[in-house]
Protein: Phage portal protein
Organism: Thermoactinomyces daqus
Amino acid sequence: MRWFTKLKAAINGAITGWKGQGFDFTSWIGRTFWGIDNSTLATNETIFSVITRLSNSLASLPLKLYRNYDIASNQAADILINGPNANMTSFEFIRNLETIRNEKGNSYALIERDIRGQVARLTPLNPDYVEPVFDTDTGDLWYQVIGNKGTYYFHNMDILHFKHIIGSGGIKGISPLKVLTNTNDFDKAVRDFSLKEMQSAPNSFILKYAANVDMEKRQRVIDDFKRFYQDNGGILFQEPGVEIDPIERKFIAADIFTSERITRSRVANVFNVPAHMLNDSEGQSYSSMEQLMREFVQLTLMPIVRQYEQEFNRKLLSPAERQDGFYFKFNVNALLRGDTATQSDYYMKGIRTGWLKPNEVRQLEDLPPEPGGEKLYLSGDLYPIDMDPSLRKGVKAGGNATTN
């Protein structure tokens, strides 16, 4: 029975992770946490595609804690970057938050702290059970969370809240799927109509006989035709004096592709994503993949990235840490790298003109630093930037260049 004891202890430990002082979310164990089983996200491939692209792109960006441009570390960074909770990696945590933000308009995560006030766990919350409220006395923002055994209230500094744009006087983000309600209904109606047309369109034929036939003989001919067609796997035998012409049936409406393109365009507009990200390249031209990705990063990802960074900085770092130069930052340059030739030219110009250090290039390429690579250099040929110009090759004591 040792295995049963271990299993019981493991289950109790898992439940403990959902329950603690001031919170109890055990009622959410085993439930559909993100509400996508029967939602638009699970039934519309265009919306699924755009949300997948956004959430995967954000979760794939390198995230680090910096202190005055140098990589740093503390307990909050370790929790966020390596293991937000016992059930999720950092990738899963950020991707799920971004997925639910794009589906519901808002995503939340509870910040659990230890006795020293340090971040100990980040637990995603079901947005259907969270409601922002204001304290009428202090004006502070609180979050009402409906749990299994009652209602709980958390101060806004203990809840990570990521949202789409809000309406006038509101605090909750507007759900993109609500904005797309009419578009989704129209797209679904077109698809349902086309499917019904396809399912209700059996093979039809026109039979031409050389002589007139009465009603009784006509019915026998039809019955015999049906039987012969079924028994012979669709093969027909055309007798002398009989003509058989199939009736052409169009299963899909002529403008179905135009309808799908309009849907993709509307979805792209609502999610602020370039249409080419949804495989709609009509009327668009890009000279390089770098240009395409730059548009996506600048117009779509940067506002999202800034929201996450500022929320992490404000609520996961103390005022003293922020004043000391600590901040979280996503590295969006990972999406902006060009091809090998372009990237090599970029590195070479950066090093030879003295604004990029060799070791910084090696760090970008995941290579270890080398001695001497922490200095800035100038071409001619690559002297340390702090070197006395009079010591450079070909320069006399008076500072004039020598000639060979």
Observations:
- The longest helix spans residues 289-316.
- Residues 6-16, 29-38 have pLDDT under 50 and may be disordered.
